[in-house]
Write a structure and sequence with these properties.
By secondary structure, the chain is an alpha/beta fold. The protein folds into two domains: 145 residues, 3-Layer(aba) Sandwich (Rossmann fold), CATH 3.40.50.620; 164 residues, Rossmann fold. The chain is 42% helix and 19% strand. It has nine helices and ten strands. It has a ten-stranded mixed β-sheet, with helices on both faces. α8 runs parallel beside α9.
Length: 311
């Protein structure tokens, strides 16, 4: 976590943002980092019926009020030892957040989970998902109710001999996870979900159960070897990671593990392709995020190009 020196903290004046605020201040104090308190005002639809002058006045007043609220937060935070900047803009939230990241070269975005409600209720609302898909720097989405230090952190990795870009994310994920676990004095858990490629096809082709089980044992052995190689290159300091090598599908088994182990923070990659502007989050990552009920820190590989521009 020492790498983060220019933190963008997104605050929307919706209450219950204490957890994200506390995490940002703690990290900035530890790293000697700058925090930008950033808030985006959306122009209310009702303004469209007013004259341009009235609209500008109302918006200017709203921005001024939001700035005063952020200044009040600064006082309550007692951050005289931290470099804090305030910025309030008008626009579409996720676009303006990403543009701020591009302009000011922020290396971490911290925001509060929106806790979207509905038939398929899940923790992350539209803004959070847009950021995790398209923001060029890591995005830390903090669950509103997680005000205490984390006790269990889970790093999801997927070592592959076929996809070098995806594989390059794994050391980054583990380094961040181990650093965070040290910072929070938390347990570090690591998960890799494996499966035998084409298992159903092989089963339907008449392979005996014994042959199929042997093939699965071989795949499990190869997966463990790749994990051992990956872990061997990471400095875990004094941590003793709990390794979970699980058979199945990631979008099913990772959320199950999060619940079983009562995980507070999940750290994972959200995009596997680089050099392609607009390449979105994979289905597996999105399905995992739609099911977990904890804070999440997502990262992207080096060379990721955001589809968002400054214009």
């Amino acid at each position: 976590m020492q790498r983060f020196k220019n933190i963008l903290l997104v605050l929307n004046h919706e209450g219950q943002e204490t957890a994200a605020l506390d995490k940002a201040v703690s990290l900035a104090r530890q790293n000697g980092a700058r925090i930008t308190l950033f808030s985006v005002l959306m122009q209310p639809p009702g303004y469209q019926g007013y004259s341009v002058s009235v609209t500008k006045y109302q918006l200017k007043s709203a921005i001024s009020e939001r700035r005063e609220w952020l200044r009040g937060l600064m006082v309550s935070m007692q951050v005289d030892d931290i470099d804090v900047v305030i910025n309030v803009v008008e626009g579409i939230a996720f676009l303006e957040i990403i543009r701020q990241v591009i302009r000011e070269q922020h290396d971490l975005v911290i925001t509060t989970a929106e806790e979207k409600k509905g038939i398929r209720a899940h923790l992350f609302g539209t803004i959070s998902m847009h950021l995790m898909r398209k923001c060029p720097c890591p995005v830390w989405v903090v669950k509103r109710t997680q005000t205490k230090p984390y006790t269990r952190i889970l790093a999801a990795v997927d070592p592959s001999v076929y996809e070098t870009e995806r594989d390059s994310l794994n050391p980054m994920i583990l380094q961040l996870a181990s650093s965070m676990a040290c910072k929070e004095s938390a347990e570090l858990h690591i998960v890799h979900v494996w499966h035998l490629f084409g298992e159903r096809y092989l089963s339907n082709r008449g392979l005996t159960e014994v042959t199929l089980e042997e093939a699965k044992d071989d795949e499990k052995t190869r997966s463990k070897q790749r994990i051992d190689t990956l872990l061997g290159g990471i400095d875990f300091a004094n941590l003793k990671p709990h390794m979970h090598l699980i058979e199945g599908e990631p979008d099913e088994r990772i959320p199950e593990l999060v619940m079983e182990q009562d995980i507070d923070l999940l750290i994972m990659g959200s995009v596997c392709r680089t050099g392609i502007a607009g390449f979105l989050m994979g289905n597996t990552a999105e399905e995992v995020l739609n099911q977990v009920d904890c804070s999440v820190l997502t990262i992207k590989p080096e060379g990721f190009i955001t589809p968002v521009t400054l214009e």
